[in-house]
Design a protein that fits this description.
- It is a single chain.
- The chain is an alpha+beta fold and 80 residues long.
- It has 1 helix and 4 strands, in the order E-E-E-E-H.
- The longest helix has 12 residues.
- It is flat.
- InterPro entries: DUF397 (IPR007278).
- This is DUF397 domain-containing protein.
Length: 80
């Protein structure tokens, strides 16, 4: 059974422990940040912490990570 993703504006994000990559992203600590709220994986812009996050399932994040490890998105960053 697939649960309907919540509207990000309905989530209480005050207790989310956000994580930012330790790899440099151009200075100023600006990077994509990741968090978890219950079963949902949240991704947002650390430069705009008050903006709404994108909401994903663990399987969606897993597919993205595996694709990145495989180099499928390297061209987006000018790496391939």
């Amino acid at each position: 059974m697939t649960l309907k993703k919540p509207d990000p504006s309905t989530l209480d994000l005050s207790d989310v422990d956000w994580q930012v990559s330790t790899f440099e992203s151009g200075g100023g600590g600006n990077c994509i940040r990741f968090g978890r709220k219950g079963e949902w994986i949240l991704i947002s812009d650390s430069h705009n912490p008050d903006g709404p996050p994108l909401v994903f399932t663990k399987k969606e994040l897993e597919a993205a990570i595996l694709g990145a490890k495989d180099g499928q998105f390297d061209h987006l960053a000018g790496l391939g």
